[in-house]
Amino acid sequence: MTKRQNQEERSRQTQARVTQATIECILEKGIRATSTVDVARLAGVSRGALVHHYPSKTLLMQAALEDLLSREVESVREMAVKVKAGELNFDNLLKALHEHFKGDLYMVTLEYLTNARTDPDIMKVLVPLAANFNDSLEQIWEQLVASAKHTSHQNRVALNATLCMMRGMGAQSIWRDDPELYRDMLLFWKETLLELGFSASDAKRGQPV
User: Fold this and answer.
1) 200, 90 in Cβ contact below 8 A?
2) CB under 8 Å to 207, separation ≥6 — which residues?
3) Counting Cβ atoms within 10 Å, is residue 108 exposed (0-12), middle (13-18) or buried (19+)?
4) Gyration radius from the chain CA atoms
5) How confident is the model at residue 39, as a pLDDT?
6) What would the pLDDT profile of 129-168 be if each residue is shown by its tens digit?
7) Inter-residue contact 209 to 203 (CB < 8 Å)
8) pTM, 2 dp
């Protein structure tokens, strides 16, 4: 490995530590209370090194959210592959999505959402990344439920209705811990989707949906 490659690898490792530390700080303190000093300390880097990669807090927030959403897209893509291979049924796919939307990573995205309402810098960060995130999920969903029964618009509506429901359940889980209710809501939504003709088109037949 050349000196330049070593430097690039060290730079990538530093950036990964910094973005992960940013996510952890936001989860613990929220965006407003998170400082670059906090992040540098948690990441184990100097503030100068952090500022070298991310000259402003806005750029740091952007990098952290981009990293977070990219990981979420890959996770959903992996689940979709398992569904199409018959390793995960449609029922368990919805349960897995629910777990994503009530976990720590979703709580971080809520911080961005609530701050974006009154902070134009955070809004500028959020809008393009969230749009790209939704576009990626729509592509995955389109491939997963593709059938002659529905148009692309109908597929898009079904996905976004599902995501809105998952986000609402995730937000409600902050103040209401009611696993039985959430289980019944998931069952209701699964049955609704199936009645409308939405299911994983290539999942192995014979598996419960």
Assistant:
1) yes
2) 86, 89
3) buried
4) 20
5) 96
6) 999 999 999 998 988 887 778 898 999 999 999 999 999 9
7) yes
8) 0.83
Which residues does 58 contact at the CB level (< 8 Å), separation at least 6?
121, 122, 124, 125
Residue 18 tokens read as: 């910094």
DSSP 141: H
Phi and psi, residue 119, nearest 5°? -120, 105
Q: How many angstroms separate the CA atoms of 157 and 160, rounded?
A: 5
For residue 9 the two structure tokens come to: 């690898």
CA distance 52 to 63: 13
Query: In the structure encoding, which two tokens stand for residue 203, read together?
Result: 């999942």
Secondary structure of 81-139 as H, E, C letters? HHHHCCCCCHHHHHHHHHHHCCCHHHHHHHHHHHHHCCCHHHHHHHHHHHHHHHHHHHH
Q: What's the pLDDT at 87?
A: 87
Mean pLDDT computed over 75-88: 87
- Structural contact between residues 152 and 135, judged by C-beta atoms closer than 8 angstroms: no
Q: Are 11 and 50 in contact (CB under 8 A)?
A: no
Q: 132: burial class by Cβ within 10 Å (0-12, 13-18, 19+)?
A: middle
Residue 73 contacts residue 65 (beta carbons within 8 Å): no
